[in-house]
């Protein structure tokens, strides 16, 4: 069970990392979001779209095109049995200005549910965990990819060359986040944000897109009073209670039948054992002789009596029991004088 729990935790963690998304990118930052050193540089925002905390340490952010990385993986895997995380580390060492491995040891790399982190593309990794070794170039396309530690492509984006300064390239809405393994880039899911309205706000470290929930809109239209939703909720609750009742009844019957079977086995064993003992005693002549002797002594312990009581009425001496008068207190005689 412990092994199953560990495997499930590892699987859940891997699935959680696949829910990370590149959410907003600014290439040329002249007057917008700044780092702790008041440096103005291009930045990349990563959004945790899942409802659980995800650690992004040991993941890779790169500007290398996917074809180059996949070709590198195939060529190296044919030469050796190295795993892809080792190959990514070697690629990081051979292309230090294009591949960045998010370091361990920083608690800020634990991205909370539905939260964000911002990486500065300033080319200065000595400034801290969230500073990238590369910079983005204005006036040309900038490709950015996020890889998991096992070499899986988590997300990617190509920022157009036409993106103006102090404007960001961001997702349009939460519907643009296609989770669990789809990495196809579609320009219609992204928009240029210039800060002119709420829909086009530049929001580093905040989710810029407004979430859209078609189910809520459908319920508002088809069930404005909320009666259908209430009935569904009550139905789910009572169905769950009914299932629990049935399960408890079945478990109770199963345990009752098991206990009854044990009791019957005990009774049968108790009946069989005395019969065996009696048979063994019946074959013991010494025990039979002892029993017969005991019965003889008990029945012949006294002389036989007739069982008739006789009383002698001619006896002059009366006992106190036979003459009640003898039990009375005698009063002294008084003689009168005349």
* Spatial sequence of strands, sheet with the most strands: 7-2-1-10-11
Fraction of residues in H or I helices: 25-40%
- What average pLDDT do the residues reach? 79
Question: Number of DSSP strands?
Answer: 11
H/I helix tally: 6
Output the structural class.
alpha+beta
Give helix and strand order, one letter per element, not per position: HEEEEHHEEEEEEEHHH
Stretches with pLDDT under 50, minimum 5 residues = none
Look up the CATH topology of the largest domain.
Answer: Immunoglobulin-like
Shape: elongated
At CATH level 2, the architecture of the largest domain is Sandwich
Please summarize the sheet with the most strands. Answer: 5 strands, antiparallel
The CA-CA distance between the termini, in Å, is 126 Å
List strands and helices in order, with pairings.
Layout (H helix, E strand, L loop, with lengths): L1 H16 L2 E7 L15 E7 L5 E2 L4 E3 L3 H14 L4 H11 L4 E3 L8 E2 L4 E6 L20 E6 L5 E7 L8 E4 L18 E4 L20 H9 L4 H56 L2 H15 L39
Antiparallel strand pairs: 1-2, 1-10, 2-7, 3-6, 4-5, 4-8, 8-9, 10-11
């Amino acid at each position: 069970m412990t092994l199953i729990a560990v495997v499930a935790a590892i699987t859940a963690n891997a699935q959680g990392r696949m829910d990370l998304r590149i959410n907003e990118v600014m290439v040329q930052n002249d007057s917008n979001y700044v780092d702790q050193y008041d440096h103005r540089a291009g930045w990349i925002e990563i959004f945790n779209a899942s409802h659980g905390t995800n650690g992004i340490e040991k993941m890779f952010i790169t500007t290398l095109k996917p074809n180059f990385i996949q070709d590198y993986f195939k060529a190296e895997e044919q030469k050796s049995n190295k795993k892809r995380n080792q190959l990514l580390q070697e690629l990081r060492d051979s292309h230090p200005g294009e591949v960045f491995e998010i370091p361990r040891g920083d608690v800020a790399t634990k991205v909370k549910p539905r939260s964000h982190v911002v990486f500065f593309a300033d080319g200065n990794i000595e400034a801290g965990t969230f500073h990238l070794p590369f910079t983005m170039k204005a006036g040309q396309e900038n490709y950015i990819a996020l890889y998991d530690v096992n070499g899986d492509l988590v997300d990617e984006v190509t920022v157009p060359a036409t993106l103006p300064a102090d404007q960001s390239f961001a997702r349009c809405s939460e519907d643009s986040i296609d989770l669990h393994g789809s990495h196809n880039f579609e320009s219609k899911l992204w928009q240029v944000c210039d800060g002119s309205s709420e829909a086009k706000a530049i929001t580093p470290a905040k989710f810029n897109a407004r979430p859209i929930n078609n189910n809520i809109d459908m319920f508002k239209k088809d069930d404005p009073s909320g009666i259908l939703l209430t009935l569904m909720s009550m139905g789910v609750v009572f169905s769950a209670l009914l299932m629990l009742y049935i399960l408890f009844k079945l478990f109770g019957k199963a345990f009752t039948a098991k206990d009854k079977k044990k009791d019957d086995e005990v009774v049968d064993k108790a009946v069989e054992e005395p019969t065996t003992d009696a048979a063994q005693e019946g074959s013991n002549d010494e025990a039979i002789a002892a029993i017969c002797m005991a019965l003889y002594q008990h029945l012949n312990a006294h002389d036989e009596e007739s069982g008739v009581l006789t009383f002698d009425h001619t006896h002059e001496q009366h006992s106190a029991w036979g003459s009640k008068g003898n039990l009375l207190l005698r009063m002294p005689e008084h003689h009168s004088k005349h």
